[in-house]
């Protein structure tokens, strides 16, 4: 599976309300899964870093950038 496929599946799974963006609460679940309990403060910091347009949600492209930087 390549990075684009992985991000697509990750995005679809955590976009629980299927609105095309990962909300702050959905993001907390995503980070908890990816970083395995490293804390809410880290989650808040990461969310703010990757929500580049500051709209309080993570787009698929923002998620891709985050996965590339943090998980690979």
TrEMBL record:
Against InterPro entries, the record matches this protein to: EF-hand-dom_pair, EF_Hand_1_Ca_BS, EF_hand_dom
SUPFAM superfamilies hit by this protein? EF-hand
Q: Which residues form the EF-hand domain?
A: 2-37, 38-72
Q: Provide the GO MF annotations for this entry.
A: calcium ion binding
Protein name per Swiss-Prot or TrEMBL: EF-hand domain-containing protein
Q: Which organism is it from?
A: Colwellia hornerae
């Amino acid at each position: 599976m390549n990075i684009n496929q992985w991000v697509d599946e990750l995005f679809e799974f955590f976009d629980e309300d299927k609105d095309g963006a990962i909300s702050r609460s959905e993001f907390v679940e995503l980070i908890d899964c990816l970083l395995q309990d490293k804390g809410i403060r880290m989650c808040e910091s990461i969310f703010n870093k990757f929500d580049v347009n500051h709209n309080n949600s993570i787009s698929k492209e923002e998620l891709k950038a985050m996965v590339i930087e943090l998980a690979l």
